User: Fold these one by one.
Assistant:
Number 1:
Amino acid sequence: MARELSTQCLKQYGMDGIIMFSDILTPLPVLGIDFDVVKFETEEDVASLSDEFDFDEQLPFIRELLGNLSQDAEDLNTSLIGFVGAPFTLAAYTIEGKSSKHCLKTKKLMMADEVGENMAMSRFLDLLAQMIGEYGCHQIECGAQVVQVFESWAHQVSPKWFAQYAKPAAQKAIRIMKERYPDTPVIYFANGGSSYLELQRDMGADMICVDWAVDMAEARRILGPDIPVSGNIDPTVLFGTKEQIEQAVRDCIDKAGGPGMHLMNLGHGVMQGTPEEAVGWLVDECKRYTGPKQEE
């Protein structure tokens, strides 16, 4: 099923890559964390976790899935993109035990960590960073040609907390991948992190994916001309008319510097209920558009 879901969009719309279909929490069992765990509060909780990561033992389906998708990518003449959650996001999911509106347990742990009362947060993030870095390497060894790091809960941290906790952990995970596989591109995406894009210039990733909450021209200005970017159409645009979707594509490409200057994408995932034909309109316009001078 995961193989079919991973290749479905490419076969239907002719997109420029296959993204491995996987849950963001998939690697947690290698640490000894079950998906139903809700209590995580102390340094002792961190010390009880495993620091020996056997992905083939705990997640044997990853090698099988990526091996199959690698063959599919070759047959379809496209690239295979791996997928990992960033350390802070996995920490927050574990600590909160579920989706959280305010992420209060996690923020309390960061504040306790900052003053030295309870170092669980920094130690947990360090362990997660090591595991995520190794997991990304494992995906590359299994066939992934690109790895995207998703900081899905970036909207839960202020610039201060991002710089102090989420960023260093993500940088460590990215560094592990790049040191071992320097020729494999790594993309970093902080969903809700566009308010502190200036802090993402030195993530160590090969590309920064931008969410939809910032104008692409402003994102390009902040990040500079030398950092490859991807994004960032608002996913709700896909509920609009064909003309609105095509205009949004053209605007985004132009603001990023013109055709060929960035990787066109949504600023987050396709929303449930999105008309399927709308996705096709977006992809078709991305491939058709050659810049304002060529427009009739």
Note: The chain has a mean pLDDT of 93.
Number 2:
Amino acid sequence: MLLLLTVVGFTVLLIICILCIVINLSANKRKGTASVLAVMGSGGHTKEMLSLLSGLGPHFRPRYYVIANTDTMSKQKVEEFEQQKNVTENSKPEFSLVLIPRSREVAQSWGSTVLSTLYALFKSFPVVFSCNPDLILCNGPGTCVPICLAGLLLKILRLGRVQIVYVESICRVDTLSMSAWMLYYVADQMLVQWPSLQTKFPRTQYIGKLV
């Protein structure tokens, strides 16, 4: 019975997501622009992500920031970043903050992580399908896993042309992070900042130190 309800729930959710795309497609897609969905993480992840975003041109808009619902610091940092960006580019703000549950909290048991990840995945589908971004950009927080899986489904169903780009943290010198392991064959491009990582993981691309 529980399995049946789960299947029905996901089916209804998928139908709603498809309707969101059909309704919002013409409004969200504008010639000469590329929408970006950036997954923020606490601490160093957010700092690195904002540094990456600062190098993107003004045509990368609108920008959607996915933040864990318990991450108040990242929300504040994004708002400060966008305020400064608007002053620098002399443009109107074109960004949105989207809160989703964390896949895993610090010190959370692995058993309960399975359930929290499924819940986060369930919440991520409407976010990705309604935004229908051209680019999903992430750099390692656990929150990015369900977002990227939702983006993959968007491509499989041919409802969007999203590119998933994963930038491994500069802290990762010899081994990939857990998120990178999970998304190794999901991401269209996985960029690393140390040549030793590219040697061990041939699907990655070494691009030097970005931040």
Note: Helices lie at 2-28, 44-53, 72-89, 110-131, 144-156, 178-182, 195-200.
Number 3:
Amino acid sequence: MIKLRRWNALKEISLLKLRSQSNRRTFCSKSRQLFAMSSSTMELTFLGTGSAYPSPSRGASCVILKMDDGSWMFDCGEGSQIQLQKSKVRAGKVNKIFISHLHGDHMFGLPGLLCTISGNNQRSEPLEIFGPVGLRRFIRTSLELSRTMLGFSYIVHEMKVLPCQIPPDVQKWKIEDSCNEQRLHPNERKGCLIEADSDNVWTLLSNDKISVKAVYLKHRIPSFGFCIQEAASPGK
């Protein structure tokens, strides 16, 4: 069974429940399509669906996919840590974060979220973060300039962008999005640079239970959509 939930400042709204008899499950975060294909439960919580900036009644982009072995966050706009604390999702259970692109309404909430998790001593295992090239620099710089130490380690895996994703004004506004791999934040562990395959698909995670892949989306800056697919279960 799958539950889709949306949180605003006042209450939780149950949006949809789906059941299916097949044995595969796919979730596309960008288009918000979810197909349930097993008897186990996945739960979607919409912490924010607004754009540009949060409002008193609507948070910036942030979605939680809760599963048996933890919770995955997709985008982390400004104020997501507040919405998270109002929901039933435990911050310490968030073990993976996927950032679609580097606009503020999709990732300005990351430094605050990391501090909230650390301040409440809610996590000890490393936290994995996936996103476009430049995300590592943003997180590291935010934590270093604020002299912030966390109570857990984090790993940033970056997706190498394609030439067609580079903004047309790159020559007018040159930005250094890479960072020194030899000088990590004290809580940082070295991550990977993930390149697209011949079909322009990035494989972020793959094991015998589940896989996560990304495709590029047309936007003003490099942007990605994520697809989560559960492996087939024998006998079901």
Note: Confidence is low (pLDDT under 50) at residues 6-39.
Number 4:
Amino acid sequence: MKEDETCPSDLRGKLSNNHQLLAYVSLLETNKPYLINTMRVPALQTVTMFSNSIDTDAACMRLVCDGWLEIRFVDEETASNTLSSLIQLRATWQNLLKLRLKDTLKSLDEDKRVNPRARQLEKILAKKLSEYLSCEVCYAIRRVMAAEQNRLYRGPDREAGGKNKILNDVLKSGSEGKVHSVKGGIQINHYLTYNCLLDESEASIWGEYTSSMQKHWVCPRCEANLIVSIQERLEHESECQSKNFEPTQQEEAQEMEEVKQAQMNPLRKHYFCDKCDQGFRFTTTEILKHKKSHVT
């Protein structure tokens, strides 16, 4: 890829939007281990979606996934948007699984119809997953060496007025986040820990400034206009997205409109046209006519 002058010198030649990892279905162990059903997968999307732990620095431009894979972004905006999409996607996926389990555990006497909210979450998940997999974000990825493990994390704040004053101020201000007992930093949710990575000496001052800097941001779910820091934004998104069992007013209106249209003509079904980049409710004949209109 073409790199500009703002690209850090240690990332030049390493940035790409097409990094890949090798995934496999099963492991066959004979005299030698063999990987069965291997395939290439996009590195950023796969690692962040399935990691048990994701640790960030103050600007979220550096991620360490499961303690051994490091991902670095060029700018703060790209990093924040990537984490924002990830939080929304994983929260939607988790809530959909919970709703499906509730439907499965219903007694035999109860109605077995699928929860309408589960159907809505399926559509949201499919859309967000498609967007996340198709995003073209430039980043660098590498394996964290064993010698770096001892200096990877800040560690918990040992003194009440210790060196990490920003975290103390955040906690005193009423934030619900708590300091990770081993890594340090703020634990946003069960997999994401913010500002626990030990910054390089030349970047520590900038990291503290960035973590406390506030910007205007609109929540994509509740549409609240907020002035927040990076850590406050991550906390709000994690909390807001985890509560999306109940639909918003906009989602309720959209769902009622779809039900109304389906009742008017039960043969109509949802159809998304890639060329129009728009969703429709068409019958099978209308779908064929619409496809033909793009060919001619």
Note: The helical segments are 43-50, 76-104, 116-134, 165-172, 204-212, 230-242, 249-264, 284-295.
